[in-house]
Design a protein that fits this description.
By secondary structure, this protein is mainly alpha-helical. The protein folds into 2 domains: about 10-40, no CATH class; about 45-100. It has 4 helices and 2 strands, in the order H-E-E-H-H-H. It has helices at about 15-20, 45-65, 70-75, 85-100; strands spanning about 30-35, 35-40. The protein has a two-stranded antiparallel sheet with strand order 1-2. A hairpin with a 2-residue loop joins strand 1 and strand 2 (about 35-40). Helix 2 (about 45-65) runs antiparallel to helix 4 (about 85-100).
Amino acid sequence: MAKVDSKGRIVLPQKVRERLDISPGMEVEIREEDGKAVVEPEKDPDEIVARMEELIGEKREVEQGTSSETERSETSPLSDRPGPVAQDFRENIRKGAERATDE
């Protein structure tokens, strides 16, 4: 059984880290769920980028009043290209993932 130190830190047992594919330096999400602490490894950066692009597309749909891929591509030639903020966000996610795997 793991212990909590005076600073609130917990060392995850090696077998748990291996099963969850958690490596040193990796960020984890810790949340309370049904009275229990749940630890989840960070999401795959490509998953985050894909979801971000999906949300951007949905926002464009609402702004343009369109509802299908065909309508979006016909009404906006840039609909498949993320804007500068999304590009910066994507690049930062990828850089963070590279740093985590290098450590």
